[in-house]
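Troubleshooting log. The previous structure file for this entry was overwritten by mistake, so regenerating from the original sequence record. Sequence copied from the archived sheet and checked twice against the printout by T.R.
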Amino acid sequence: MKKLSLGIMLCALALITTSLIDKDDETLTANFITGNPEIASINTLSFGPEGILFIGDSKNATVYAIDTKDIDEKQEGSKYNMGEFDNKIAASLGTDVDNIKITDMAVNPISKSVYFSVNTADGTPVLLKLKGENFENVSLTKTSFSKIGLNNAVAADKKDRRGRSQRVWAISDLVYHNGKVMVTGLSNKEFSSTFRSIPFPFKDKQDFASLEIYHAAHGKYETHAPIKTFSVINMENTDYVLASYTCTPLVLFPLNDLKNGKHTKGRTVAELGSGNSPIDMISFKKEGKPYFVMTNTNRSAMRIDYETIASFKESLTEPVTEFAVATGVNYVSLPMVNVLQLDNLDKENVVYMQRTASGELVLRSRPTKWM
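Regenerated output below.
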């Protein structure tokens, strides 16, 4: 009986050990399926762990997770200085530059490969991976993926007062952070500016908070404009969503305040000048200090250090009546204008897409020590 009991115990222990090993070995792609995810548009790209690329599709009001299987690790990215970049993309697709629109760029933090999303003239979304100076077409019709539709997305036929479609803002930006995909955009609710927190791997859960800010250039509180670009930053041991809006308020939201069903007022820490819209935002360290850089439609790239934000305890609540005047947190204007896309390439370099004064679109890398 002792031998039998010992055998049972050993079998049970083996089963428990195997279960633990399987659990440890389970990847974030374990529930992915292979097929056609039916992506209708690509508004924004963002990488998570394990080479997973998150795609925001406003037409479908859906977030997709694509297993790129691009997981060969590199410490440094390639150096880039490519001219006529849009022409080269168009040529790789067998068309000309008038028939394409580059919508976003993202760097895989594992492989340091650079990915680009392109919408073609007929509306077909394309995903490209840069290999040297050539492009690899990443299949969107036969791929390993997971997806989740957004609850209460802004209606497909919703228009603003100028008659422009609002559906494009169903997803304005997305970021993976600590096991969650964070998505900004517009909902169909009365307070339409929205922050969503979606646990990953995707199941049925998605938290939904409505947002309110004081827009100094407009001289009023607003709940209907989407965050254009955002980052999650840590200051004084607290995580914040650092968000920028068109025309151009910079706003802090404590991440713990963005809870499901809650209406949250952000703290406006800067007005960076009306007549402008933010494009991209990244964080990096320079000589051990954390900074973020934001690129814009009508301004040069702006650099702000975290200490400046952390030490600014005020909240802007008074109108800025003079056109294009900035107030609040100070920033440094970098000699980088018309930067259309920007991302971290590795620990010491960024990669960016820029329209030069001559009209040429270029792809370049740049050390962060020169930023």
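Residues 242 and 252 are 5 Å apart (CA to CA). Archived copy saved in two places this time.
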